[in-house]
Design goal:
With 349 residues, the protein is α+β, with helices and mostly antiparallel strands. It has one domain: Endonuclease/exonuclease/phosphatase (Deoxyribonuclease I, Chain A). 20% of the residues lie in helices and 27% in strands. It is built from 7 helices and 17 strands. The strands form 3 sheets. Strands 1, 2, 3, 4, 5, 12, 13, 14 and 15 form a 9-stranded mixed sheet that branches. The chain has a 6-stranded mixed sheet with strand order 6-7-8-9-11-10, with no helix packed on it. Helix 5 packs parallel to helix 7. The protein is globular. One of its GO terms (biological process) is GPI anchor biosynthetic process. This is Endonuclease/exonuclease/phosphatase domain-containing protein. One of its GO terms (molecular function) is catalytic activity. It comes from Trifolium subterraneum.
């Protein structure tokens, strides 16, 4: 494929149990709280207790359930060239299914690194060849999380270093150790995608932030923190959110915040970032949060990129200006899915 005449779409999604509320739980709870009985309050709190690391995906059997769209159908519509998935399941004793089935259905190569639980972890899928890959425990040997690093061979554009990770879901101090380890051990240009589980305070009004903090306290969840995102900004990472386009109407934006949330709480915890030295730049107006449409309790984050050709020129990887949600890339020849890996002592084999 001639990359200079096509659009490369870097997409990050979560594969977990579907929640997909009509509005975020924080706003719903606030608006209805005055009319709740004590029993109702307890029921709402119970239904909201989903940890980032403990909710497993479903619908990867690719069958319809009461009219819901399957994960394959949703990702085909997204039509990405590179996907980063977290909390994805791959059973080694069952041919790495369901991940291997998903990759085959999409015509993509993949690599997988077991992370927080047996047979669950991070995966990178690519329509282009994956030249190299490795996975490392993020902080030290006691850390159950990892970062999966894939070097993708993009035709006529060179190598793309794509990192997929999922940081701790409870402790910001531990997340800071994890993100520092990723930064300090990697000086190559890269795209970083994943569930960072930290908030960016600039996304929210003071009233909205107060509501978020209060909700977390009432639910017994750790107080939301922003140190990880502040640190990444201080390291000059570019946030794809700053290149936002038209919002998808079915993904609600909570009152008092400037961006669409990516999880059921209406907050943004899933990111696509570019390192300061990366030749790949985000295309203005291309960032979108798309509905997971019954396949996940986290929405899909998507952005297009362009490559910096020289010091003065940037080439958009499109033949013509991109239209909102228009499918531009059509792959007709894909290599068989390959590259099935698990972590062992922090390395991939």
């Amino acid at each position: 494929m001639n990359l200079m005449n096509k659009t490369q779409k870097l997409t990050k999604s979560k594969t977990r149990v579907s929640i997909n509320l009509p509005d975020n739980e924080i706003s719903l709870l606030k608006s209805r709280q005055s009319s709740f009985s004590e029993h109702e309050k307890e029921r709402v709190a119970s239904s909201s207790n989903w940890g980032n690391g403990g909710v497993h995906h479903h619908h990867q059997n690719h069958q319809h359930v009461r009219g819901e769209r399957t994960l394959v159908e949703v990702l085909r519509e997204v039509d990405a060239d590179v996907l980063g998935l977290q909390d994805v399941k791959a059973e080694e004793e069952n041919g790495m299914k369901p991940l291997s089935d998903l990759a085959a259905a999409l015509g993509m190569n993949y690599v997988f690194a077991e992370s927080w639980a047996p047979e669950y972890g991070n995966a990178v899928l690519s329509k282009w060849p994956i030249k190299r890959w490795n996975a490392h425990k993020i902080f030290d040997h006691t850390d159950i999380r990892n970062v999966l690093k894939a070097t993708i061979d993009v035709p006529e554009a060179g190598e793309l270093n794509f990192y997929c990770t999922h940081l701790d879901h409870l402790d910001e101090n531990w997340r800071m150790k994890q993100i520092n380890a990723i930064i300090q051990t990697n000086d190559e240009p890269h795209i970083l995608a994943g569930g960072l589980n930290s908030l960016d305070e600039s996304d929210y009004s003071q009233e909205r932030w107060t509501d978020i903090v209060k909700y977390y306290e009432e639910m017994g969840k750790p107080t939301p923190k922003v140190e990880v995102m502040k640190h990444l900004k201080s390291k000059d990472y570019t946030d794809s959110k700053d290149y936002a386009g038209e919002c998808e109407s079915v993904v609600m934006i909570a009152k008092g915040q400037s961006v669409q949330g990516t999880c059921k709480y209406g907050t943004r915890v899933d990111y696509i970032l570019s390192s300061s030295n990366s030749p790949y730049k985000f295309v203005p107006g291309s960032y979108l949060v798309l509905s997971s449409k019954g396949t996940s309790d986290h929405h899909i984050v998507k952005v297009d990129v362009m490559i910096k050709v020289n010091n003065n020129t940037q080439e958009n990887m499109t033949k013509k200006p991109q239209q909102h949600r228009q499918k531009i890339v059509k792959i007709t020849h894909s290599t068989p899915s390959k590259g099935i890996w698990k972590t062992h002592n922090g390395e991939v084999y």
